[in-house]
Amino acid sequence: MSSTQSDLYHQPSLIYIINPTVKAYSPPADVESRVHKAAVDVLGGDENNWRKMPLEDRTLKFKFLAKLTKEFDHNIPNRELNSMQNVETALDYFKTRVRDTSAYEDLSKLDLPKNLHMNLEPIRFHPETDTIYGGKTAFPGRPTIVTSIKYRRKYKGCENKLNDD
User: Fold this and answer.
1) Is 105 a member of any domain?
2) Which CB contacts under 8 angstroms, 24+ apart, belong to 60-63?
């Protein structure tokens, strides 16, 4: 790794670019003027043709995108970095609204018919807490495994024993 690459890797602003968390983002009304200002400040070049400025130099691309990330408080996922070949593609990214809800959650917020109900919190079977079936599972011998780190605190996994019935 060259010293330039090493320096870039250890800059604290890199955290903005590689942070994988998704949060809602609504683009401000002046996105275009702010991206234009950042492009001229960091990349230099022609004022009139700023949208077509290439992002070929990795150091300049990093500085430009780090500045925009900080300016808009909007992270850029790794999958988007390679597609940003010029200022216009970066502008398109920062113009795009991001929602932090799933389609399922959006559906539940609609005005649903009276006979339709959506339960956002699933009811998980656990033999110790089951009050409906007396602790008997529909899947004897198969464990209930919670694989998500997020949901391990919320739901308990269990080893389902074979029913004697």
Assistant:
1) no
2) 62/8, 62/14, 62/17
| Residue 117 located in a structural domain | no
Range of the structural domain that residue 134 is part of:
122-165
Is residue 87 a part of any domain in this protein?
yes
For the whole prediction, is pTM greater than 0.70? Answer: no
Rg (CA), the chain: 25
Our count of domains for the chain comes to 2
Helices of type H across 26-148: 31-43, 58-72, 78-81, 87-95, 103-108
Same domain assignment for residues 58 and 19? yes
The per-residue pLDDT string of the chain (165 residues; one tens digit each, 9 = 90 and over) reads: 444 444 444 444 433 333 344 688 899 999 999 999 999 999 887 778 889 999 999 999 999 999 999 999 998 888 888 889 999 999 999 999 888 777 778 888 888 888 988 887 777 777 788 778 887 877 777 887 778 777 777 777 777 777 555
